[in-house]
Amino acid sequence: QRGAVLAGLGTYLPSYVLTNDMLAHVVDTSDEWIRTRTGIRQRHIAGDGERTGDLAVEAGGRALASAGVDTVQALVVATTTPDQTCPATAPQVAQRLGLGTIAAFDVSAACSGFLYALATTTSLIRSGLFDSVLLIGSDTFSTTLDPTDRSTRALIGDGAGAVVVRRGAPDEPGALLDFDLGSDGSKVDLLLVPAVTPTQRAEGRADNYFQMRGKPVFSNAVLRMTESVTRLLAEVGWEAGKVDHLVPHQANARILTEVANRLGIEPERTVVNIDQVGNTVAASIPLAMAHGVQQRRIRPGDRVVLTGFGAGLTWGTAALEW
Ligand code: ACO
Known about the structure:
It is found in: Cytoplasm. With 322 residues, this protein is of the alpha/beta class.
């Protein structure tokens, strides 16, 4: 049977680090408030002129190197902050990575973007259309924020994380087993960036900035991720107790704890790197994966569940064997 496997992992974080104390100098907040309410200590912020495509090229190059390949047949960029409204970010990233004239397109599903793109990529490989795809989650979501809004500025960071997905047998290391995806467009107003272009955002009108209703986002995130993981575990026949690692979208440490509790997955089996990077939108899950692997927590043969939730509303879950 034709399957898809994860074959390489690469990450990139902008060099500029904004700590909670630094943020407390520009908006009315404190390190203590942010740490206790969100678990975040710092976030990386893209520099002037450093765009989503730039971050994607760095992470993508590292993923190719980690997979030991210099070419793939397609490139997918998951992002909600593309370099421009049209065209997609992916074709330029493909050129800059020296990948030539391969198929290249973006997937937009906010914080669930990486999982939506991973499901798409896996399907393209299983269908026989491609044998190898580079998938990059990259966002410079800090560019959408109201500089005076303490609640969103405390949460968001910029970054990119990438994987190479290639054709492989379902019992090979890295095998992607199954997915659960969903959306609820009736709750679009909970997380929304009304502006459609970087230029409109730069005009600085308050209604162009990212708007978030924190409390209902919190409760919907817990509910939807818990439901999605539960559905997928039933589908693949895994009990929660047999999951070695839960790798959730890093939105708020308290959300992650609540999801893990409801699922019956111990805190030690949940990968958390939100303290270092904040919420990096489409980059969040591959950055957390890389964190778990670098710390040697995620080991060959482990059962891994990735889950995410974001604007749309959208959510998604993937099961794989590392
Ligand atoms: N520093 C100090 N005070 C703050 C801060 C801050 N950084 N942020 C919010 N507050 C204030 C609020 O203004 C509010 O003050 P008020 O009562 O005077 O209006 C007070 O804290 C309490 O606010 P609550 O919303 O009750 O605080 P809560 O405990 O819910 O925490 C938070 C707020 C952290 C935003 C939480 O609701 C949350 O994490 N929600 C989920 C957010 C999320 O995951 N978003 C995804 C965004 S990314 C995407 O989808 C693209």
